[in-house]
C-alpha cells in the first residue's frame, strides 16, 4: 500500500477517534462518550452560534474558515434575495419590455422624441428612464445616457431658409448618433449591446379570437363600473369606416356575462343591453388604471392616459376643456392598437402602412368571423334537423308499405292453402300399354 494512502487512513482514524474520545472537564473528570455523528453536529452548531469561534480543532488537524454567525446570516440573506431576482437580459419577454416602456410614461421624465429614438426603441434595447431625459441599462452594466436634441426648427421661423435647413441637418445627425447609442451605449460586456427585442415584442396578443374577446370582456366590465364618469356619446368620436353598432350586434349572445368560452355563450342568452360608451373604450384598448385612480383610463400597450374630466362639462355649467374625444387617435403613434406596423411586427419599410391592420381592426375582424361561424353552425344545425325530419317521414312511409306487403303475402298464402284443401282430384287417366 502506498505511503499517501496510509497517511490518509491514519488521518481518517484520528478524526474518528477525536469525535468519539471523551472530553476532559474542568474538574478532571471525563464527559460521557457520545455518538460520533451527534458530536460532530454539536461542534458545528457551536461554531455557527458563537461569534468568537473561528476555527475548530479536530484531533491533530485544524479546520479553518468556519464562518461566524454574522457571516452565515449574511450568506443566507444574499442567497434568499438572489433567488427572488429576475434575470435582466430577457429580450423575448414582452412583460418585461412593457415594464421598461412604462418608465417613460411620466411627462416629468420624458418628452416625445423622433421615431428612430423614441421610448419603444430604448426599451427594446434594455434601457429604462430613470430621471429627466436620462436612460440607464437594466442589465447591470452601469451605462447611463442623457438624451438631449437641438430645438425644433419650427421655433426659428424668423431665420432664413438656409439656416433652417442647416439646423434640420444638425438635428438629424444628432438623432443618428443617439440611434447608434441604442446599442453602443452599453458597455462591451453587456449582453444588450449585441441583442435587442424582436420587432414583434410590442404585438398585441389578439390573434386568438376567443382570447381577444375574453380580454375585451374584462376591460368592458371594469370600465362599466365607472360609466358615470365617462363622456357623453356626442363627445366620443370613432373612425369613419367603423360601425360600432354592427360590432355590438355580432357579439356572442350573452356578452359580457359568460367567461367560460364560446360553447357556453351559444347555449345561454342573457339579453342584457351593452353600454355603448363603456364598450367603445374597451374595444379600442382602453382600461382602468392599475392604481385605481378615479376618472382615469390608460392603454396597457403605450401607457397613454386619459383624464375623463377634461371631456365633461364642469359643475359650474362651463364648457369642457375638450369638446371631442377621438378614442382611436388618443393612443401614442407607435401603439399597436392603431399602428399596423407595430401590430404586424414586420418592421420593414416595404410594407405599406395602409395595408397593415391595427389592433382594433384585427379585433373587429375576429368578432365578425366568430359571428359568421356561429350563424353558419346554427343554419347547418337547422338544416340537419329538417333533413332528419324528412328522412323520418320517408322511413315511416317505407315501413308502412313493407308491412302491408307482408300482410298481403300472408293472406295469399292462406288462400292457397284453403284452395289446396278444397281441391277434388279427378279420375286417374289410363296410360297406354296398361291393361
Task: Tell me the layout of helices and strands.
Blueprint: H1 3-20, H2 36-49, E1 56-58, E2 61-63, H3 69-84, H4 94-102, H5 119-124, E3 127-131, E4 134-137, E5 144-146, H6 161-184, H7 209-224, E6 236-237, H8 244-249, H9 262-267, H10 276-283, E7 286-288, E8 296-299, E9 305-307, E10 325-326, H11 340-344, H12 359-422
Parallel strand pairs: 6-10
Antiparallel strand pairs: 1-2, 3-4, 4-5, 7-8, 8-9
GO cellular component, one term: nucleus
GO molecular function, one term: zinc ion binding
Keywords: Metal-binding, Nucleus, Zinc, Zinc-finger
Explain the overall architecture.
Residues 279-375 form the NuBaID C-terminal domain. Pfam families: NuBaID_C, zf-C3HC. Keywords: Metal-binding, Nucleus, Zinc, Zinc-finger. InterPro entries: NuBaID_C, NuBaID_N. Residues 252-271 are annotated as: Disordered. With 435 residues, this protein is mainly α. It folds into 3 domains: 3-84, no CATH class; 94-197, no CATH class; 209-365, no CATH class. It has 12 helices and 10 strands. A 3-stranded antiparallel sheet has the order 3-4-5. α7 (209-224) packs across α10. The model is unreliable at 50-67, 75-83 and 258-271 (pLDDT under 50).
Describe, in short, the structure shown.
This protein has 435 residues and is mainly alpha-helical.
